[in-house]
Design brief:
Radius of gyration: 15 Å
Order of helices and strands: HEEHEEEE
Oligomer: single chain
Low-confidence stretches: none
Strand order of the largest sheet: 1-2-4-5-6-3
Number of helices: 2
Length: about 150
């Protein structure tokens, strides 16, 4: 698969600045894995308060970036773009671990590996690395939802 840039990613996700946390998808292996990048910049609004004296990218946003990768993977698996009434929601996080801080200037590599799908719930093993060093890992669960209006 060719890489997906941010203009293609936003066709799969409803997230927008400042909550779109994937800058590029670098690889996708159908039924197996997806790899994406997140460039962490001091210009992100979160750093005005987390923490001004020592900016650290929040772990919960690393998990959200992983979940966004999982949603892109799921929509790619289904072979098309979502409708305006369809999205994947984060429904679970298991075994989350944080090993190294992510700071402005870092480029996170996010890897998600499909473990299984069952009754509409997709389970992934996800990791975040910076310079080949593990920063975070978790099992991420997402589920497809139809928005009722």
């Amino acid at each position: 698969m060719e890489a997906l840039d941010v203009t293609e990613i936003i066709k799969y996700l409803p997230h927008r600045y400042p909550f779109l946390l994937i800058d590029r998808v670098t690889s996708y292996d159908a039924g197996k894995t997806l790899t994406a990048l997140k460039n962490v910049s001091i210009n992100e609004p979160i750093f005005t308060g987390h923490f001004p004296q020592f900016p650290v990218f929040p772990g919960v946003l690393i998990l959200e970036a992983m979940a966004q990768c999982c949603a892109v993977f799921a929509f790619r698996e289904l072979g098309g773009y979502p409708s305006e009434e369809t999205l994947y929601l984060l429904v679970g996080i298991d075994e989350a671990r944080f090993k190294k801080q992510v700071v402005p200037g870092d480029q996170m590599q996010l890897d998600v590996v499909l473990q299984k799908t069952r009754r509409g719930i997709w389970r992934f093993n996800a990791t975040a690395h910076v310079d080949d060093k593990l920063c975070a890992s978790a099992q991420i669960l997402i589920a497809k939802n139809e928005i009722e209006r």
